[in-house]
Design goal:
single chain, globular, seven-stranded mixed β-sheet, binds copper (II) ion, five-stranded mixed β-sheet, about 500 residues, alpha+beta
Length: about 500
């Protein structure tokens, strides 16, 4: 141990100070640090952009800056507890890197010599695995077999040369820590762009958490996930992917959790051009619109955005298109005749007091010992009380921060239909929060759109030039208004 520490100290002494806290946009990285950037000074931007691959955007996740130490690209990752706002007002305690879960995105170019300093600010040991990397065994980050775990307060410095290309990721190799959020994208660019070149390149990391009402910490043992995220956000808090009509788009989908996710794109056919093992030969490309991204896998899809509009991109597992679902939500929403024995609010996961796992609440929230609630009852509908019309005014308690609370449309005889309601109170005007999630990328979406977005959902917005420019203009303004480092709170105090 002590000899390793000494060895590390030497490396660090040579390395000097680590990366500065500035967050760079993809464009800035291209200009200031891109491997191609130096020798192309003086070239017109348009010419240059055809020679280097498009930098990857990870909406809602920052880019990890680096510094050059002679010929080594040096990054600094800090494993630490983070507060992640996965949904407006829903701040949860996760574990991640440099202030977020997932951690910041790393982008390198094939052939790069890379050094990554990993500090452990967690209260327990961790490890850092480079998923799919063909690197020396000692750098693999497999705890116990290739190295000792990094103790709390400890540091390990990884260094290797990369000869691969593709959508890779880094993650803690401690199983339960993975379920606390500890993953980040690691993109290895080819030296020259693939043909046809992608005009836009995005990465999305999928994660799931079981976080019961009134609780801020995920239950990493629970298999009933009720918060599903793209890049650390549940819809409608996800940030749409903005593309120009006619552009070629690549989306890199990364999954590290307990579930597999069939990701579906509306309005287009795509081809799968890459896996977690890198680029796929073109002979394997066939059209599709849904790709199953299994655990520990990545999938690259590409398509030409030839169909203008705001197109949903989402996991197609119905329960993964929901937020905070706790139990049989639809039938629960009855004032009397609740199959699981509780009222509508609690059934929807809005627990105002008490523990979600208490004897009273647990079974009805679907968190019993494997048996249903003792209050479970037959599914046939009981007649509604005369004054109860399932309308807004009957739910005086249903005031929730940021929601617009429009009325759902239900037919007069709704209550005579077995199974009603299913989505009436879970999707639609009641759940809309357009203003709360307002941001440049959402500009111009249809009013009320947010009431229908939940869980692993976002948009690919295929826009005509003028609307595209409008959003880029708004984005520029927003970025001008706030200091860049705000995006990366974990970095602020960690570097001196
Ligand atoms: Cu899914």
């Amino acid at each position: 141990m002590s000899s390793r520490r000494g060895f590390l100290r030497n490396i660090l002494a040579g390395a000097g100070v680590v990366a500065t806290a500035k967050v760079l946009s993809a464009q800035e990285m291209d200009m200031s640090h891109g491997t191609q950037g130096m020798k192309m000074k003086g070239m017109k931007e348009a010419e240059r952009s055809h020679l280097s691959p498009t930098l990857v955007e990870t909406p809602d996740v920052s880019q990890l800056p680096w510094r050059m130490d002679r010929n080594v690209k040096e990054f600094h990752l800090i494993a630490e507890p983070v507060k992640q706002e996965i949904f407006p007002g829903r701040v949860v305690d996760l574990w991640g890197y440099n202030g977020s879960a997932p951690g910041p995105t790393i982008q390198v170019t094939r052939g790069d010599r890379v050094r990554i300093i990993v500090d452990n600010h967690l209260p327990e040991a961790t490890s850092m695995h480079w998923h799919g990397f063909e690197i020396p065994n000692a750098m693999d980050g497999a705890p116990g077999s290739s190295q000792d775990p990094i103790p709390p307060g400890g540091r390990f410095v990884y260094e290797f040369t990369l000869h691969q290309e593709g959508t890779y990721f880094y993650h803690s190799h401690m199983a339960m820590q993975e379920l606390m959020g500890m993953i980040g994208a690691f993109i290895m660019h080819p030296k020259e762009p693939y043909k046809p070149r992608a005009d836009k390149d995005f990465a999305i990391i999928m994660q799931e958490y079981a976080i019961l009402p009134n609780i801020e910490v995920p239950n990493s043992m629970n298999m009933e996930f009720n918060w599903l995220t793209f890049n650390g956000k549940a819809g409608p808090a996800t940030t749409p992917l903005i593309v120009r009509h006619g552009e070629r788009v690549r989306i890199r989908l990364i999954n590290l959790g307990m579930d597999h996710h069939p990701i579906h794109l509306h309005g287009h056919q795509f081809v799968v051009t890459g896996t977690e093992g890198g680029r796929q030969p073109e002979s394997t490309w066939g059209p599709g619109n849904t790709v199953l991204v299994g655990v520990a896998q990545s999938r690259d899809v590409e398509f030409v955005a030839n169909n203008p509009g705001d197109w949903m991109l989402h996991c197609h597992l119905p329960h993964h298109m929901m937020n905070q679902m706790s139990s049989m939500v639809g039938p629960l929403s009855r004032r009397n005749g609740m199959p699981a024995g509780l009222d509508m609010e609690r059934g929807m996961g809005m627990l105002r007091q008490g523990s979600a796992t208490s004897e009273e609440n647990g079974p009805s929230l679907g968190r019993g010992m494997g048996v249903g609630s003792t209050a479970e009852q037959a599914m046939s509908n009981s007649p509604l009380k005369a004054e109860s019309t399932m309308q807004h005014q009957d739910m005086p308690d249903m005031q929730h921060q940021g929601m617009q609370l429009g009325k759902p449309e239900v037919s007069k005889d709704a209550n005579s239909v077995p199974g009603f309601p299913q989505d009436a109170f879970m999707e639609g005007p009641m759940m809309a929060m357009d203003e709360t999630v307002d941001k440049p990328e959402n500009f111009g979406l249809r009013p009320g759109w947010s009431g229908f977005m939940a869980g692993m959902m976002t948009f690919v917005r295929v826009l005509p030039q003028d609307k595209y420019d409008q959003i880029m203009e708004l984005r520029k303004k927003r970025e001008g208004n706030k200091p860049m480092k705000m995006d990366m709170p974990g970095m602020e105090h960690k570097h001196e």
